[in-house]
Amino acid sequence: MSLCKICRELCRDFDNGSGDWESAEEGFLIVEPVASMHQSWDSFSKSLYEDCPICWGLWRSIRSSPRASPNEEPDMEFKSWLHEGTFSAKTLTFTLYINLTGKGKRQESNEFHVRYTTSEALLKARRRYGIDVDQTSGSVARFIQHWSNHCTETHPGCTKRGVSSTATNDIALPTRLLDLGNADSKKFRIVESQKCCQKNDQYVTLTHRWSHDTPKLLQTNCEQYYTFQSDNTLPQDYQDIISICRAMSVQFLWIDSLCILQDSPEDLLREIKTMLNVYQNALLTLSICWDYSDSTLFPSRRGDTLSIVPPNDEGNIIAHSATGCAFVTHVDEFKINVTHSLVNSRGWVLQERTLSRRIVYLGNEQLYWECDGVIASETVSNILQDKDVRRMPIFHDSDDFRVALWPKLVEKYSQCGLTSEGDRLVAISGISRMMSAANPRDRYIAGIWSEYWLFDLLWTPLVKNFWPRNGALLRTCAVRTIKPTQDAPSWSWMAFPGPVEQPRSLERPQCITATTMSPDKPLLLPRALAMLSQFDVNPPPGADNFDSMSHTTLRLNCFLIPADFSGIAEICQSQSAPEFYHPIYCNAFYFPEQRKNAIYHLEFLKSSSRGLPRLEKLTPITLCFNKPWNSGLSTSMLPIFHLPKHPDKRWTRDRVGGLIVQRTSARGQDLEFTRIGTFLEETNNEAVLLAALRTTIRKGIIDLNNECAKSGRTEEAFEARLCEYINAPRIGRSTEDIPQGLAEGLFFPKAEWANILLG
User: Where would I find the Heterokaryon incompatibility domain in this sequence (predicted)?
Assistant: First the structure.
């Protein structure tokens, strides 16, 4: 494992008088300035053939899969450079942050730790890890057994995941399993577990990407599969999985394509409901990271290029090596080889990864292990990773901890792909069922939780970049080309055909109720400005709220404030692609009528802000449209929350946010609206919207007490509390804190308090 000449130049002797290293503090040095590395593909590929471990780490970060070669995927625009480098004299460790650019590549840093050593110590470590020998089913089984024993002995939480019956500790087996026979068998069959398995039989699950030749269990071939078939009737990757299971002495294997009738909607629906138990009760899950259906899962590997953690013997580490022999650890290798692998871009796999007790990742030059206790590889016993790279620990004992994970799960899931957009709800139904079982009071409908509706409704498209155009701030979003299922209501993030994010400026307390309206509650908790009065779904026979979004009902008691966004149409028309797939972020301003303080509408700012009244400059509202604005429909802003500015923390801001809705129809006495976006007002002073609502109520334009005459007691209590909160003096704030003009009584003459259906 020797560094190439260019990489050795980066890790040169720090006291050689070259002046390239500048001391930042005693025993710690930093390199200045930025250093160029390989400036051409020819230079880079030459180092790859010399087995430079740093260059191989960079190659793994840009190649399409482990099966690719530098000759097959050249990049004539490729360049690399050292963005930052440090050296610790105490540990004799170089830390390098290397950036890459090229065709379609982002400037993303790769972190490497380099420690020089002797050729003898390096050879000894390689032999100990056995990385000079290609993987086999037997070697894979031995690593799995080692990791499993360690997990069972030291990670009680991982074992606890698999007990589905606290009364008997019996493991609930899947409906069907592949019977692999004994270790010497060359045949398999599909069996029904109730007829052919014992209660505590262990089984392994497989997670993978489907391909054109994925074998499927159908009503026309199930009888054939119920009799023993030769292993070679299956694709090579399935055969390798079976051989690993037999080497582990595991007789039963669960594969979705062969254990669920793929042409039976009834069987699919029934089995999807069991996904939680299937994965959490399995001994472990084997994951095929890349597409290998036509070739072996055990690729040939170059041991010189793999990350190796140096042994504990400090004598193996030296300050400098003329030959460039070094222990090189690529900190980002798990993210590159596993988190960003093809299998983890699949929507179904997020659930499978999250629910599994233990996972072994196959298809890379090394095996990787993941459980709640540790991430490891064949050469690194504990890979330290950023929390965003690890899987979600949803089996945490704390309810608050699980609740905080839901927005992150939504963000990750919305970035994954699905073959059928109709699977959007069911592909995470196992996770939602598990979370619902932990808190039965919290109802789940179309990706939204009843106790956290205030937060969950405020999703926005996940923005990648932005640019100014026509006075607005437009941002791009990696949307899908397939529109989501028509069953998804407009208020659900599942209705948007692309990645979304949840508001990060709001904390998610354990429960949102009318009592949170009290002014004496903790100041950093958001106050609800609307009430969820009905939250229902009417699924078809055989379905439930975890796998059906049909006939959902979301009814709100809320303020409706008229808004005019006619300028948005101009922006939409200027885009080259269909407007539905391009979320728009822009700013709007309040436009009070001169001398009357009446705000009849909020208007999109179509031109420069020069010449605007001072009030308008101070009160911008950030708008995000997730679908087209329809000029033929009336538009309103629907405030949902107020997050007060903390009187003792000057860095906090006063925030009011909510939905942008359009009225679609009137069904009887019900007003029906659709969600087209969100708004957020943030200010160092009191939010204009809240101040204007207070004046509007005081003027009698909105009379909550009278207008709730037909409401139930819960609604009446909420509305009374809301009126009390809005009219309460703001804690820690005087009239001098409010910009001139706001204290003069702005109000919304056309605002109303209504009970609406959001579809």
Answer: 203-352
Q: Encoding tokens for residue 593?
A: 């009528």
Report if residue 131 sits inside a domain: no
Question: Which residues in 33-58 are b (16+ Cβ under 10 Å) and which e?
Answer: eebebbeebebbbbbbebbbbbbbbb
In a domain, 326, yes or no: no
Residue 361 inside a domain? The answer is yes
Pair (367, 418) in one structural domain: no
Q: Residue 708 carries which DSSP code?
A: T
Same domain, yes or no: 354 and 411: no
Q: Are residues 715 and 742 in the same domain?
A: yes
Shared domain for 170 and 242, answered yes or no, is: yes
Compute the CA torsion angle 569, 575, 580, 583 (nearest 10 deg). -90
244 token code pair: 């690993």
Residues 413 and 545 in one domain: yes
Phi, psi values for residue 541, rounded to 5°: -55, 135
Asked if residue 123 belongs to a domain, the reply is no
Checking if the pLDDT of 520 tops 80, the result is no
Least confident piece of the model among 86-90, 238-242, 367-371, 739-743: 739-743
* 658 closest CA partner among 514, 568, 529: 529
Per-residue confidence (pLDDT) for residue 62, from 0 to 100:
92
The pair of three-digit structure tokens given for residue 540, joined into one six-digit string? 């078809």
Average pLDDT, the chain: 80
Q: Please indicate, yes or no, whether residues 27 and 102 belong to a single structural domain of this protein.
A: yes
What are 295-347's pLDDT values in tens digits? Answer: 889 988 888 888 888 877 656 787 777 778 999 999 999 999 999 999 999 99
Domain coverage including residue 522? 401-758
Answer whether 38's CB lies under 8 Å from 6's CB. yes
Instruction: Give CA angle at 487 (484, 493), nearest 5°.
Output: 55
